[in-house]
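Quick illustration, no need to memorize.
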Amino acid sequence: MNTLLQNKFVINSGSTGRIAKKIGQEAMKNGWKSYIAHGRNDRPSQSETIKIENDWNIKWHGLQTHLFYWQGLAFTKAIKTGRENIKIQPNIIHLHNLHGYYLNIEILFHYLATADIPVVWTLHECWPMTGHCAYFSFIGCDKWKMQCNHCPEKRNYSNFIEKMKAFITKLN
């Protein structure tokens, strides 16, 4: 049986949570097994769920993010624990939101580069291409086009250069 693994920091909640839920339902209608790995908020789901982080570690990652601007680059136990807990062999991995204090993008992208599993990444917001913000239009900023710097949103999200290194160099 084919297996789909999706990620979402909050399961079956908000617009992206509902999108992941519906994708899982469609996969199951077509004979696939569906899993959603998530960071917090256990909620009922037709897909099997895998919680890859606990509340304490999410708060610790959030604190590191706000002190050092390490969103997605802090606390590595989450993704390591998640990898250990995920005993499935997915045929495809579908990424949704990668921020939310529940995983380390450097470790995630290293794993994806070596896993030999096709990956789909749906960009629901702008965080992957900016230094710090999820929606650059909220603050009227276009620095992301060249390189984010002196960001008014820097307390909310990670460092642009470190994020780009994680995305690009781990895939080479």
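The longest strand covers residues 3-10.
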